[in-house]
Design goal:
The complex is a heterodimer. Chain A is an alpha/beta fold. Chain A contains 17 helices and 10 strands. In chain A, helix 3 (64-77) packs parallel to helix 4 and helix 4 packs parallel to helix 5 (120-128). Chain B is α+β, with helices and mostly antiparallel strands. In chain B, the strands form 2 sheets. Chain B has a 3-stranded antiparallel β-sheet, with helices on one face. Classes of the chains: A alpha/beta, B alpha+beta.
Chain lengths: 390, 92
């Protein structure tokens, strides 16, 4: 089928990161992982971890010039927005230079960061490069819990980073990753967002890919928690309307219809990983191992987007099996998430099992039954607030 | 929501950019995690949100399109209120 034009590029500059969050969506096979059993919280203060990361690897990461070429090529393809992500993008010393290159290509630039490693000098460079906005992640409002989740003493540094970003006048979004251990503190997290003066807050429940898939039993909230959190988020959204934009993202296992993942495969988004693989979605390389990825070092970005097998594999509706193929929702949710289908059924070309019409829905139900031993989780079905369609 | 008064200066909210999408030639608003393609009316209004008041914007549009300002004013108010609702616009 004919390829549409892409709108947004996620540039994963590095997989290096000073944090060790157990729900990270990076591929779970990345070498810098802390072996299980070793408690990262005790072993690594953030600067130590940063130094270690620098010492062990730039191996294979795209160079500054390669990223600049990618940015120009992406803009020529139609991309309007770029997210600089990772890993922790601040460990790249050329970050401000890449932001400048993206602004020169007329892209909207967003830095997606833990805030660790953001010093005055670096922030000034980013500000001088006309960075459009920063999305800062938080693990909790509570320092002890946040540091335990991050596996590093990170929370105070994040608070400092938020204050610096505010005083530099750069628009600030906060991203709280929500899961079983911190979901009961949603009110306090919203209060922290008010204190820090954020313009936008994402309260995003963990989605189950990468490390989060491995840790699912520990991080999936109960139905009761999810229902209560939604009430809190809805009330806060109304109370703060006009001051802070609040987005609450449900864990989709509690949905009855799948999320319209990526707004369709190969329709709007592309991701480029640290070594130049071009992905229809950031989690595709680990979730769909037989996806033949193309690399920007070997092929033109334009060709990869339009012609490659990986981008065309689930583009449009031709790939769909039943019940999607004849479903009136097929161009609304696009059959859900290919990575989730692959992780839960072993076949990426099946209906996302979150959908109650999927013949594999029992896989999700089984997980929920183990999470909610008292049963009754079905009584509480609640529906996704969609973040992108607005 | 109360009606937006004549003397208000509408401005794009912090972090929101108005630019031309070179792929389509159309105007777009860019903001964190979002893109909105603007219709002709919204483009004409937003490209004049440069420190002018609502009253001035309405008069400029009325002159440009040779229309009755009263007829234009409600369209402009509606567009601004919608963008305000989405936190994309500040009313100063």
């Amino acid at each position: 089928m004919t390829a549409p034009r892409p709108y947004a590029l996620l540039a994963e500059l590095t997989y290096r990161c000073p944090l060790h969050c157990p729900y990270c969506s990076n591929p779970a096979a990345v070498e810098s992982a802390v072996p299980s059993g070793q408690s990262a919280a005790q072993s690594a203060t953030a600067p130590d971890a940063l130094r270690t990361a620098h010492a062990t690897a730039n191996n294979g990461e795209l160079t500054t010039d390669e990223w600049k070429r990618i940015i120009r090529d992406a803009a020529a393809l139609g991309v309007l927005q770029i997210g600089f992500s990772g890993g922790e993008p601040l460990v790249r010393r050329d970050l401000a230079e890449l932001v400048r290159a993206a602004r020169d290509a007329n892209l909207y630039t967003n830095l997606i960061t833990s805030g660790i490693g953001l010093d005055e000098h670096g922030l000034r460079a980013l500000s001088d490069a006309d960075l459009d906005s920063v999305q800062l992640s938080f693990q909790s409002d509570n320092a002890d819990l946040a540091d335990e989740i991050a596996g590093a003493r990170a929370h105070q540094r994040k608070l400092d980073a938020a204050a610096k970003i505010r005083s530099a006048g750069i628009p600030l979004s906060l991203n709280f990753v929500i899961h079983r251990r911190n979901i009961d503190r949603l009110s306090q997290m919203i209060e922290l967002s008010e204190t820090l003066g954020a313009e936008r807050v994402e309260l995003a429940n963990v989605q189950f890919y990468g490390w989060a898939f491995l840790n699912r039993a520990a991080v999936l909230p109960t139905c009761e928690q999810v229902v209560r959190a939604r009430e809190i988020a809805t009330a806060a959204k109304a109370r703060l309307a006009g001051r802070i934009d609040i987005f609450y993202v449900l864990p989709d296992y509690y949905e009855t219809r799948p999320k319209p993942c990526l707004n369709g495969w190969g329709q709007r988004y592309l991701t480029i990983n640290p070594t130049g693989d071009v992905l229809p979605c950031p989690t595709a390389s680990s979730a769909i191992p037989d996806l033949r990825l193309e690399n920007v070092r070997a092929r033109a970005l334009d060709w990869i987007w339009r012609e490659s097998e990986s981008f065309n594999r689930f583009r449009g509706t031709d790939w769909m099996p039943e019940p999607c193929r004849s479903c009136p929702q097929r161009e609304i949710d696009f059959g859900g998430c290919r990575c989730q289908a692959a992780l839960l059924t072993g076949n990426a070309a099946t209906t996302d099992p979150v959908c109650t019409l999927s013949p594999n829905r029992s896989v999700v139900d089984e997980v929920l039954r183990n999470t909610n031993p008292s049963g009754d989780y079905r009584r509480h079905w609640i529906y996704r607030i969609n973040q992108w369609v607005r | 929501m109360a009606e937006i008064s004549e003397g208000v200066e509408p401005r794009l909210a912090k972090g929101v950019r108005l630019q031309t999408d070179s792929a389509t030639g159309k105007s777009v608003l860019l903001f964190p995690e979002g893109i909105i393609e603007l219709n002709e009316t919204a483009h004409e209004i937003l490209s004049r949100c440069d420190g002018r008041t609502l009253g001035e914007i309405v008069r400029a549009l009325a002159e440009e399109y040779d229309m009755d300002p009263a007829a234009i004013a409600s369209d402009v108010r509606e567009t601004l209120a919608d963008l305000r609702q989405r936190n994309l616009l500040q009313l100063i």
